[in-house]
Amino acid sequence: MSQAGRKRRIIGPIRQIVQLGALASTGEWLWVGALRCPYGIPFMSCGSCPMRVCPGTWLQTWVIGFLVVSGIVAGRVFCGWACPMGVIQDLLGRVPKLRALSRPRFGRVDRWLKGLKYVLLLVTVTAFYLLNERFAVPVRGHSNWSLDAVRVAWLTYDTASRVRVVILVTGVVLALGLTRVWCRYLCPLGALLVIGNRISLFRLRRNPSLCANCGKYPRECRTYTTPGTADCVICGDCIEGCARGAIGFRTALSARTRPGEADVRQERAVTKVRVLTKWMVDRQWFRGIISAGYR
User: Fold this and answer.
1) I need a labelling partner for 142 at 20 to 30 A (CA). Which of 85, 234, 280, 283 fits?
2) CA 274, CA 263: separation in Å to the nearest integer?
3) What is the pLDDT at residue 209?
4) Helix (H, G, I), strand (E, B), or coil: what is residue 250?
5) pLDDT at position 121, please?
6) What residues are paired with 247 via a beta bridge?
7) Below-70 pLDDT ranges, the chain
8) Is the residue at 148 inside a domain?
9) In a domain, 122, yes or no
10) How many domains, in total, are found in the chain?
11) What percent of the chain has pLDDT over 70?
């Protein structure tokens, strides 16, 4: 067996182990943030949250650091390997008798719907500054998994917070019939991490000389996209599934460049990273995300 074959054989199991570990580490935060967060936009003001029992009070800084580093190194790899909502979406995609519905054939409609997450990103950022100056009554329970606490929190929510819960629950339920529906159409974080797919050091690439243009990807892709594009979550399914071995990881500067072209690409990549860093510093991006609630 070739080395490429051995790699393809182990990518899936390794990814599943990493996903389950990520869910075990952050699942409690996802549950509390989605259903009991006293702020209008959850997962954003954890540093100042009055409900100190939430794991987000100490997890948030680590997760943001991982998002930045992983985004620069490998794009949306967080979405495909470590996102707790993504893990849940994948698990629901395995539900028997519904897997036939998990791969859509409506390519044009799918492309239009994928634009919705960018709208939700704009709404989320705007609402963060409008709503997270205040918070609802923090509801504590005998356990962070308490259903009674969830019920009481719902009764104390305003309209905006209830809409947020409905959107999150809808994304989970729809995953029973459509694989990764949250990641495709509704996730504002995924829309933000698209930047990573554009500037990352390592990317999924298709080898045109080996590819038969069979159309298996996006047809068999869990997010119905082609490798390395904006909606690719770097799950590695296409590396395992391509019988010709035409898909794999390559550096951003590798791969069949004409003389001098690599230097141009390197300069462009450095410029992109420099512009993004300056943008975040100028707008105090890290301060706004990590410690907004301390105001």
Assistant:
1) 85
2) 16
3) 84
4) strand
5) 93
6) 206
7) 1-8, 96-106, 253-295
8) yes
9) yes
10) 1
11) 79
What pTM does this model have? 0.78
In the numeric block, the tokens 């943030």 are attached to 33
**The pLDDT value given to residue 30:** 94
**The tokens of 248 are what?**
């794999």
Residue 16, amino acid: Q
- By residue count, the chain amounts to 295
Strands (E), the chain: 202-206, 247-251
Report phi then psi at 251, rounded to 5.
Answer: -70, 160
pLDDT number for residue 117: 94
The two structure tokens encoding residue 87? 């893990």
- Residue 258 resides in a domain: no
Query: 273 in helix, strand or coil?
Result: helix
Q: How far is CA 56 from CA 46, 85, 120, 258, in A?
A: 6, 15, 22, 48
Q: Which domain holds residue 159?
A: 9-194
Under DSSP, the state recorded for 257 is: P
Type of residue at 130? L
